[in-house]
Each structure stands twice: as C-alpha cells, then as structure tokens.
Amino acid sequence: MCIVELQKMRHDRTELYTRAIQPALWLLIFGETFSRIRAIPTGKVPYLDYLAPGILAQSALFIAIFYGIQIIWERDAGVLAKLLVTPTPRAALVTGKAFAAGVRSLAQAVAILVLSALLGVALTLNPLRWLGVVVIVMLGTAFFSCLSMTIAGLAMSRDRLMGIGQAITMPLFFGSNALYPVGLMPGWLQAISHVNPLSYEVDALRNLLIGTPGHLPLDLGVLVVAAIAGIAAASALLGRLVR
Amino acid sequence: MNGESGPADRHAIVCRGLRHAFGDKVAVDGVDLDVAEGEIFGLLGPNGAGKTTTIRLITTLLPARPGMVEVFGLDVARHRMAVRRAIGYLPQQLSADAALTGRENVGLFARLFDVPRRQRGERVEEVLAAVGLADAAERRAQTYSGGMIRRLELAQALVSAPRLLILDEPTIGLDPVARDGVWERIQEVRRATGMTVLVTTHYMDEADQHCGRIALMHRGRVQALGTPSELKSGLEPGATLEEVFRAYTGDRLDEPGDGFRDARRTRRTAGRLG
Ligand SMILES: Nc1ncnc2c1ncn2[C@@H]1O[C@H](COP(=O)(O)OP(=O)(O)OP(=O)(O)O)[C@@H](O)[C@H]1O
Ligand SMILES: [Mg+2]
C-alpha cells in the first residue's frame, strides 16, 4: 500500500515543493519577528531554534490532518471498494496510508530543516538523533493521518471532513508547545496541551534537534500508543465508507 | 478445486432470501439465486433494480446476514476473508488509479492478494498481455482510453486468478469494438481457467450472446430466470431479449404517467419498420 503512495509521489513532485512554502513563511516571518522582540522567554535557547522543531511538527500536522480527504476521494472513485474486496486486512491498508503520509512529512521536514540551518539554527549533527527525528515525525504523522481517516469514516463526506479538520487544526496547534512553552499558557490550555499528542511530538523533536531537556521515553510511548489507537479506530471505520 | 465433494460445492454463489435496505429504501428484497460453477451468469434489470446492491452483498462490501449468501459453500457473513480471496471484482465505476502506470495498477492488486513475490512479476505481465495492454503497461492510466481502462481493471481483477469474477457493467460507456474487446478477453480467460462469471449489463445483445443464464431483476426481486432462449421463447416465439426485458420491467413506466411509455413504444415500432 505504502509503496503505491510512494510511486505516486515519484510521479508528481510539484506538490512537495508548494507544500514547503507555508512552513517556510512561518519560520521566516513569525520566527524572525518574535526573535527580535523577545516576547517569548525560552531561556538560553534563541527563539528561532526553539521554534524550528515546532514548525516541523506543525507542517507534519497540516499534511496529516487532511489526509482523510484522499480516502473519501478513493471512495468516490470506486477505488476503496476494490481495495476492501481484497484479502488485505483493513489495518494493513490504513497503516500503509499512514506510513505514506509519514514519508510525505519527511520530505517536507528535510526542506524545513535545511531552511532552519540556513537561518542559523544550531541543529544536532548526531546521526542517531536524526534517526530519532525520522521515527518521531513518522509516528506523529501516522497518528494525525489516522485521526483524519477516522473523521473521514464518521463524516462520510469531503466537505464535512474539511470543516472538522479546519476546526480542530488550530486548537491542536495553539494548544501545544509548538510556539511557546507550556508554562506561559492559562491553565485550561495547559490541560489541552497535556493530552495533545502534538506536544509530545514537539517535545521529542526539540530534545533531539536542539538538545533542550525533554522526556523522550514518555514522548515516544505516547506517540506509539496514539498511532496504534489511531490505526485501530480508522480501520474499524473504513468499511463504513463504502456502505 | 474439489469438484466431487458434494452437490452444494458445485455452486459458485447461492443466495437465499437476500435482502438489504438503505434506511427505508429496500434495494434488494428477497433474492434467491444459484450460480453454477463455470457458467457466465447475467444479472439484468432497469436502473435501480438492485443489481449493484446484490453484488455488494456478495462481495462483502455490505453486511449480509448469515444464511443469505454462500460463495463456494462459504457463508459470506462468516468467512469474509476466504470469500474475498476467491473473488475478482470490477465495480460499476471506472476505478483504476489514474496517477499510476498500467503495470503499477496491476502490481498493486497482485500485492494486495498476496500473490507470492516470485510469481508476482510474471503474473502481472501475463494478465496485462491477456487483456492486450502489454505495450501500454508503462504509460500512466490517465492517458488510457475508456476501453483500455476497463481492460486494465479486468487485469486487476484477474491477477489473483479468482475462481469467481464479478463484473458490474464491464462495458459501460464503451464503443462496440471496445465492448467486443472486453468480452473476448473475458471469454478467453474463462475458457482457459473455468472460472465463474457474474456480470451485469444494460446491453441486451451482450447478455444474449455471452450469458449462459440470465436473471431479470426488478424492484429488488428476481422476476424471471433462465437461458436467453428459454426467456425468449417463454414470452412468445421470435421475441428478442429486449422485449422480454420490457415485458418484465415495463411497469415502472406506469409511475410517472404513460407519456414515456408511449414515446418508447412509438420509437420501437418506428425502429422495426425502419
Ligand atoms: N448507498 C446507498 N444509499 C441509499 N440508497 C441506495 C444506495 N445505493 C443504492 N441505493 C438505492 O437502492 C436501489 C438499488 O440500487 P442499485 O445500485 O443496486 O441498482 P442497480 O440495479 O445497480 O442500478 P443501475 O443499473 O443504475 O446500476 C436504488 O433505488 C438506489 O437508489
Ligand atoms: Mg448498478
């Protein structure tokens, strides 16, 4: 399943380039501005360094959260029905899709990290940590793409999925530690942040990339559990789409 | 295949009281069918008769209740995976992946059906050649004509060497030459492998020519069943299959008023005279 998605990506690369624009703007405009006015206390770490892993996670979130549209599109095109009549388990189909979404995120992660390095962000040079980044980005994207596919299975239509996707993206993003430390948030937002897998993804990425203190085992655990739960939920609802 | 293990096994499909409703709308309303192994069985009927719904129940896409459908003796409600393994399915919609090449499209289904890795390449080339697409295999499906896409989808359905091929309007929207092309491929593969074919179509000439037996569906029920010649001679000597179709399903035209029906009749008479 995943191989197919990769074959498609090979056929169409323009999408990858255009998708890199938005996170680039975030880094350049938001990052540069807030570095200058020093509005957000990030300790000894320059704000841009602090922000880069957050933008990385954000871009992965944006790719993943609308991934379910592809499932709806496949349903409308009759492709999904054909897939579901094969003996391949639903969970394998969903995992393949989630994995493919992860690879897309990685392609974009490369672009963001190159730009960050150019802007002077002090990124790690340790290859093991880079490997860790790959794993975390894949897991995070897998979870959010499964969330999107689950919503697709409930919403049943492209428009409703778009609506729900847009409604939850901003709370997920701002209700996380991507832009600012959790300590700055009001209590209720902190609570959101604590159950938000994005926070754990950002925490892990920050820890791996720029060496801020983090909770890597906890982050990894949360993301693994979230991804598995996401796959289970999405595969349970996949059949509903073709009824 | 276990041909000798009892009479029940000689049926590819057995439906008993098959029923499905979408909300209040009863789409399939008590269908009984026996499709024998190795035959080409045609499911005919007007738009909305319930043909696609019947097929989606047989292919496990819609939930059937235990006892309603058996495929090769396996209850569809209980043995979904085994049933899926036995079936090659071509949906009513054109559904090849336009972004992939012909070969990638077929290769995908070879993987999804667990065709062993070593045989995979060979199987894919074999079915691509069987549907006459070997030369176009490297091109993306978006450059294919309608007839080529349908043949590509046929290759996708055949790559797992299914014992039962289910085709929902395989020749929809195709020109007469392309239609013949699709049917020739189906017939060739069937002669070579002895697989069973369940097919729906709105083309009476195709059904007449290619189907061993036909069920005429209307309003979710089977209204008539038999070989094309039985159905024709059952109506009146010299009748065409189209006339049989109209005789069993014509009543739907009473609903909106008789204007339509009259127009159709006149056209038919005109056609005969001209
Ligand atoms: N997903 C669905 N939701 C609600 N109603 C449906 C759905 N699918 C089919 N129906 C209804 O069920 C009835 C049977 O539809 P079906 O698609 O089985 O007909 P068909 O014989 O295949 O027709 P056609 O020749 O047009 O393909 C129709 O009245 C249709 O409107
Ligand atoms: Mg139909």
Automatic annotation (TrEMBL), chain B:
One Pfam entry name: ABC_tran
First-listed, main subcellular location of the protein, grouped into a coarse class: membrane
InterPro entries reported in the protein's UniProt record: AAA+_ATPase, ABC_transporter-like_ATP-bd, ABC_transporter-like_CS, ABC_transporter_ATP-binding, P-loop_NTPase
Protein name (record): ATP-binding cassette domain-containing protein
Domain ABC transporter stretches: 13-244
Domain of life: Bacteria
Keywords from the UniProt entry: Antibiotic resistance, ATP-binding, Nucleotide-binding, Transport
Family statement: Belongs to the ABC transporter superfamily.
Gene3D superfamilies registered for this protein in UniProt: P-loop containing nucleotide triphosphate hydrolases
Compartment annotation: Cell membrane
Source species of the chain: Actinoallomurus spadix
GO MF annotation list: ATP binding
Database matches in PANTHER family: ABC TRANSPORTER ATP-BINDING PROTEIN, ABC TRANSPORTER ATP-BINDING PROTEIN NATA
Membrane topology classification: Peripheral membrane protein
